[in-house]
């Protein structure tokens, strides 16, 4: 359902009123730099959905273009770690642009340090970070940067088969004008705050900050690397410190150069010399039950850098 845009007249409809003949608004889920997200019922498809609508005060051509870009990018992606896009349109009452996506039932990423159960299951505790990097790998192979990674955008789905799911995006593609407002809670790479152009290592930095939050509870301010994680083997804490130091390096060239490399380093952190492991046996069984998923359509495989920072992209393209 796509209607023609008209002049806006008022704010989005309150709870219980249909913003179109198809969608019934139920409650507000959150707000971002330019829009608000509501839980709605799709009365045609008979399912719940998340509806992102541009706020009236941000109704300018640039914001509308970014919302359409986000929907277009999502609509062409298919991965279990990403929320699927459904529909784009304009509200009937005030003609504000919106799109709907899959509603993920679950909870935002919980902060550390690990509790007693997580101390016995370190790999399971790190799984949301592995899921995040899996999603970023998929996005980067499609030449899309996320650029809005924070705790509220990574949902631990109630459906255990989904794992952690990215639900909101700042989407940017190479060649596009880079001018997006960063929310105050975004874990933004320092080079972006300095006005430098984005690269996939900006997402690597934000993923590292989110992993630091998962391990220590630290969210704001200059990152402080942990020497040890309560209840975990000392060697695992030291290895995670080195991994975080690489992911959070101020120089993008010194960070992991792909989400896949970052993910593999986390898995390798629990493997010791001579076949010994920091991961308990039941944790190793857990990770075998959560294989890497590539999504469909099948993305290009990661390869060494082609010079522009995009995996699998030839210099002649």
Summarize the structure in words.
- The chain has helices at 61-75, 116-120, 122-141, 190-193, 200-216, 234-247, 259-269, 281-288, and strands spanning 23-31, 35-42, 47-54, 85-90, 97-102, 106-108, 154-157, 164-166.
- The protein is an alpha+beta fold.
- It folds into 2 domains: 23-102, Phosphorylase Kinase, domain 1, CATH 3.30.200; 106-288, Transferase(Phosphotransferase), domain 1.
- The strands form 2 sheets. The chain has a 5-stranded antiparallel sheet with strand order 1-2-3-5-4, with helices on one face. Strands 6-7-8 form a 3-stranded antiparallel sheet.
- Helix 3 runs antiparallel to helix 7 (259-269) and helix 3 (122-141) runs parallel beside helix 8 (281-288).
- It starts with 22 loop residues before the first strand and ends in a 29-residue tail after the last helix.
- Mean pLDDT is 79; it is low at 1-13 and 296-308.
At the first level of CATH, the class of the largest domain is Mainly Alpha
Query: How much strand?
Result: 5-15%
Count up the domains. 2
Spans of at least 5 consecutive residues whose pLDDT stays below 50 are 1-13, 296-308
Helix content estimate: 25-40%
Q: Please name the CATH topology of the largest domain.
A: Transferase(Phosphotransferase), domain 1
> Can you count the beta strands?
8
| Assembly state (oligomeric) | single chain
- Trace the largest sheet across and list its strands: 1-2-3-5-4
The dominant shape is globular
> What's the average pLDDT?
79
Amino- and carboxy-terminal Cα gap: 35 Å
Please tell me the CATH architecture of the largest domain by its name: Orthogonal Bundle
User: In CATH, what is the homologous superfamily of the largest domain?
Assistant: Transferase(Phosphotransferase) domain 1
Overall structural class, as computed from helix and strand content, comes to alpha+beta
Order of helices and strands: EEEHEEEHHEEHHHHH
Largest sheet: 5 strands, antiparallel
Number of helices: 8
Radius of gyration: 20 Å
